[in-house]
Specification:
By secondary structure, the protein is α/β, with parallel strands linked by helices. It has helices at residues 6-34, 37-44, 49-56, 60-73, 89-95, 105-116, 118-127, 138-160, 167-173, 186-194, 207-219, 255-265, 289-307, 321-330, and strands spanning 77-79, 84-86, 176-180, 199-204, 225-229, 240-246, 266-277, 335-341, 345-351. Helix content is 51%, strand content 16%. Helix 1 (6-34) packs antiparallel against helix 4 (60-73) and helix 1 (6-34) packs across helix 6. Bound molecules: S-adenosylmethionine.
Length: 353
Amino acid sequence: MAAFDQAKFEALQGRVMGNVGGAVGLLLAYMGDQVGLYKALEESGGVTSEKLARQTGLDERYLREWLSANAALGYVDYSEQSNEFTLSPEQAALFSHESEPTCMQGFFQAVVGQFATHDKVVDTFKSGEGRPWGDHHPCCFCGTDRFFRTAYDSNLVGSWIPALHGIEEKLKSGGKVADVGCGHGSSSLLMAKAFPNSTVVGFDFHGPSIDAARKKADEEKLNNVEFEVRAAKAIEADNFDLVCIFDALHDMGDPVGAAQQVAKMLNPEGTFMVVEPMAADSLGENLNLLSGIFYGFSTTVCLPTSRAQEVGLCLGAQAGEKRLTEVLKEAGFKNVRRATETPTNMILEARLK
Ligand SMILES: C[S@@+](CC[C@H](N)C(=O)[O-])C[C@H]1O[C@@H](n2cnc3c(N)ncnc32)[C@H](O)[C@@H]1O
């Protein structure tokens, strides 16, 4: 065994303590989000715990402890002089600006969802058996939608679709789009709104997610989008110009079979857009914080979701472009290229010709 290096130990200890603070802070941030405290703080421009308690109707003593923890962690600012708590613009960007890509609340919610069913997480890991997507805590579905949606809001219409050969023009004039494994349908809704001459169909095998997607479509009064409960390999509709899978191909039990089905769904000139978490091709190249987070979710959600289905390939959320390209080629796609990317996502374009 290598000799104990005190400096290395202390550096790691500091990081791990930071993670413990983060784990506790994340739960506090989730609580604040659920009861609207960051919004209230932002709107107040600075408040004492007593005033915030009066404004929100929450218990002052609990609130003071929550505020103290947030102040100690740097999530809110505190002035000893005025005894007031404030939310700076930077803190607001992370904790209360829901529609902005900087907002972390979706991420927090997804982690809370994993902790909420920690017994099942351990049992699944011990047994090596699958755990169906639908078996997770609702925070897993809401959090996933919330944190992936920020990337789609910022990039899907403005840069990902324009990076595909000829698709933007087609959708502007009127095309047919499928969004497979659409979850709560945020990506489907974005495309339906941006391309009113096109029709979009979102498919997912998880009924409650499709219910949530339909509800959002109704609220937004969109009539060029519909949603169907359907497993990827069971979709019968065809003649699509664009089929997309957003952050879901690696969750499928049989991604090759799903991609073969996509090939049948497309018209001969059609395009398959696969959005996957950013990753290099080997673990050695993936030793960074973002990959650590993705491998983590992959251990508790993506692999068990895949294993619960037929084939159970377990690609994982850090499969990398090389492995994903193999899957797409095995399914019959002749041309596969990385059309574009962001720091968190790679966007692959697959075509039959
Ligand atoms: C990580 S979520 C992503 C959801 C959505 N695309 C998004 O980006 O927010 C993965 C989704 O894939 C769906 N899924 C997994 N396997 C599937 C399959 N074989 N057929 C259809 N949907 C599937 C799950 O129900 C879940 O909604």
